[in-house]
Automatic annotation (TrEMBL):
Superkingdom: Eukaryota
Annotated Pfam families: GAF_NLP, PB1, RWP-RK
Comp. bias regions, Polar residues: 496-521
Key words of the record: DNA-binding, Nucleus, Transcription, Transcription regulation
Keyword Transmembrane: no
The protein's name: Uncharacterized protein
Ranges where the PB1 domain occurs: 583-661
UniProt-recorded Gene Ontology molecular function terms: DNA binding; DNA-binding transcription factor activity
Basic and acidic residues bias: start-end ranges: 574-592
InterPro entries associated with the record: NLP, NLP1-9_GAF, PB1-like, PB1_dom, RWP-RK_dom
Domain RWP-RK: 413-494
């Protein structure tokens, strides 16, 4: 088995031995590396075999040594028209595209004939890469890397194999000659903020573990190790800036999706690209790896139900977006899935501004010039806008509804976009001021717009952050001042401080978005009653002077020439007795599990993190992060002592008795 004639021919086997040496030295993990090559068998049949071929074996792993011994007895068809079980090496040899799995034990016998031996010798992760001749499409064989541990990301191993083959004038990836792969169409990015808002709303409203957006690799300008001349036009991958990972434990699955690009037609995402109807699967793990290449990762992370829908945006033309939503892991009953999908479709519809479902008629038009835009507009004038109902599968009689703009085309959605812009201009700064005391979501609901639109309106008026939290902080400080005044004997009802948010005046700063208060009169102090004997109330104009001379007044009582003015000791914030001894109650949820306990008053962030990791039995605490639910019902990252102090402060000033993490 020799290369084509060269000045000094080098046997391919010798080059593969050099490549194996490079791969072996790149890592110290226990692994078996073996080469499968096509050989002639009796009767003119060609098969893949690793018998009498170079291999590399970690010396301290006897289980892999046994697995190597049984591998030499296996062979797989090498001809395109051959029948029989291909196995993992045979599939890679035919497709000329790398393939890997986190755990070979997820295979069936038809997909991996060595499955019984793999379970016996504790074989887990596996990577198989084609060996291609430089300057030719012919496949000389495959390199198989076998591990004894589960593995999620294979990029380092794949890069190591590719570099080792390139060092000996071979390659592992069939580089596409299509110029479109390197040319990205950045126009699709205009729709990503709206899509991200839809995904976040769906995850938070329905506790979905993961939602992500898929776009063609050509549109993103992405290259992948699974690209080839034959499949690059049908390859799709997730958009990193348009995904929502609600459950941190699922992050590994999203990373696997980013590495293992899908082809159109495979899985719910691939099928959604080929149809205008939503695609649903009640259990993606029941699919084979050929039907859904990410099924092994779904088993690994416990994901089952998934739905995908193909959408377009009025602002991005004919670019297709497929939104993929994974149902909660505990949602397995068909009635629960039906209820959730109907609710999910309503959320997607409510949050969408320019997104719409693609129609069969619209796929016949590719908007690339003015004549085709006119054709699409003419078609839109003869269509009626109506809701669309799609059945999700033969096993279920319920539907996924996306109404309002299903049959709208590009021209109709532009009209909708104009109406949205007109609605934004109708919201004035005075309208915003009336709602500053409430949360952003409450204000959006009262104004009849979505939170994303309201944020955009605020930025147009110079408001970078919704001021309700600042107002609540001022209210909290005023309550403390009121308690200090009331703690003085005989001072009850002398000065009544109204809550800052109860009678909001609306004097807002155009740059900050919250009222400016320079004197005590701006804080809605009521008319002062006569002070009791022995107590003097300082006027507001002397606040700055009294604060600057506080050092001397603390050493000796102040005198106005007649009577001494006693200085009342500051009263501490009233805290229930149960909270004086201990900290607040905490309820922590992780996936399906939850715990509840009371913090100690002297705990720091590290103490809280250690307690939670112990209660959930986390072997590696670095694998999870903490978030707390704030006063605006948003999940805020908790990373340090300052964050914990802010969390507890919000808890103290709210009627809630439990901190949710």
């Amino acid at each position: 088995w020799i290369d084509p004639p060269m000045a000094s021919p080098t046997p391919v086997v010798d080059r593969l031995i050099q490549a194996l040496s490079h791969i072996r030295n790149s890592t110290t993990d226990a692994k078996l590396i073996q080469v499968w090559v096509p050989v002639d068998r009796g009767g003119g049949e060609r098969v893949l075999t690793t018998n009498d071929q170079p291999f590399s074996l970690h010396p301290g792993c006897p289980s892999l040594a046994h697995y190597r011994e049984i591998s030499v007895d296996y062979h797989f068809p090498a001809e395109d028209d051959s029948e029989g079980v291909l196995g993992l090496p045979g599939r890679v040899f035919r497709s000329r595209v790398p393939e890997w799995t986190p755990d070979v034990r997820f295979f069936t016998w038809d997909e991996y004939p060595r499955i019984v031996h793999a379970r016996k010798y504790d074989v887990r992760g596996s990577l198989v890469v084609p060996v291609l001749e430089e300057g030719s499409r012919s496949c000389l064989g495959v390199v198989e890397v076998v591990l004894t541990t589960q593995k999620i990301r294979y990029r380092p191993e794949l890069e190591s194999v590719c570099k080792a083959l390139e060092a000996v004038n071979l390659r592992a990836v069939e580089l596409s000659s299509s110029s479109n792969v390197n040319t990205s169409d950045s126009t699709y990015q205009a729709a990503l903020p709206e899509i991200l808002h839809v995904l976040r709303s769906a995850c938070f409203d329905h506790s979905l573990p993961l939602a992500q957006t898929w776009v063609s690799c050509i549109s993103q300008g992405k290259q992948g190790c699974r690209h080839s001349n034959d499949n690059v036009k049908n390859c799709v991958s997730p958009v990193e800036s348009a995904c929502c990972i609600f459950d941190p434990h699922i992050r590994g699955f999203h990373e696997a999706c980013s590495e293992y690009h899908l082809l159109k037609g495979l899985g719910v995402v691939g099928r959604a690209f080929n149809t205008n109807k939503p695609c649903f699967s009640n259990d993606v793990t029941s699919c084979s790896k050929t039907e859904y290449p990410l099924s092994h990762y779904a088993k690994m992370f416990g994901l089952k139900g998934a739905v995908a829908i193909r959408l377009r945006s009025a602002s991005t033309g004919s670019t297709d977006f497929v939104l993929e939503f994974f149902l909660p892991v505990n949602c397995e009953d068909s009635a629960e899935q039906k209820k959730l999908l109907i609710s999910l479709s309503k959320t997607v519809q409510d949050c969408s501004q320019t997104l719409y479902v693609v129609t069969d008629e619209e796929t016949n038009y590719t908007v690339i010039n003015e004549s085709k835009i006119a054709a699409a507009q003419s078609m839109a004038n003869h269509q009626e806008s109506s809701s669309s109902t799609f059945k999700l599968g033969s096993k279920y009689d319920y539907t996924f509804v996306f109404s309002g703009s299903t049959s709208e085309t590009l021209a109709t959605n532009r009209k909708k976009e104009k109406r949205r812009i007109k609605a934004e201009k109708a919201i004035t700064l005075q309208d915003l001021r009336q709602h500053f005391a409430g949360t952003l979501k409450e204000a959006a609901r009262n104004l009849g717009v979505c939170p994303t639109t309201l944020k955009r309106v605020c930025r147009q008026h110079g408001i970078q952050r919704w001021p309700s939290r600042t107002i609540k902080k001022v209210d909290h400080s005023l309550k403390k001042i009121q308690r200090v005044i009331e703690s003085v004997h005989g001072a009850s009802n002398t000065v009544n401080i109204k809550p800052f948010s109860s009678n909001f005046t609306g004097r807002a700063s155009s740059s900050r978005g919250f009222p400016e208060s320079n004197t005590l009169d701006d804080l809605n102090l009521s008319e002062r009653a006569p002070a009791p004997a022995g107590l003097s109330v300082l006027p507001s104009s002397s606040c700055s002077q009294s604060s600057s001379s506080s050092g001397s007044s603390n050493r000796s009582p102040a005198s106005d020439g007649n009577n001494l003015v006693p200085i009342a000791p500051a009263a501490e914030e009233t805290v229930p007795k149960s909270q004086e001894r201990n900290g607040p109650r905490v309820k922590v949820r992780s996936g399906e599990d939850s715990v509840r306990f009371r913090m100690q008053s002297n705990w720091s962030y590290s103490d809280l993190f250690h307690e939670i990791s112990q209660r959930f039995g986390a072997d590696d605490p670095d694998e999870f992060h903490l978030r707390y639910l704030d006063d605006e019902s948003d999940w805020i990252l908790l990373t340090c002592d300052a964050d914990l102090d802010e969390c507890i402060r919000l808890y103290r000033s709210s009627p809630k008795e439990t901190i949710k993490l």
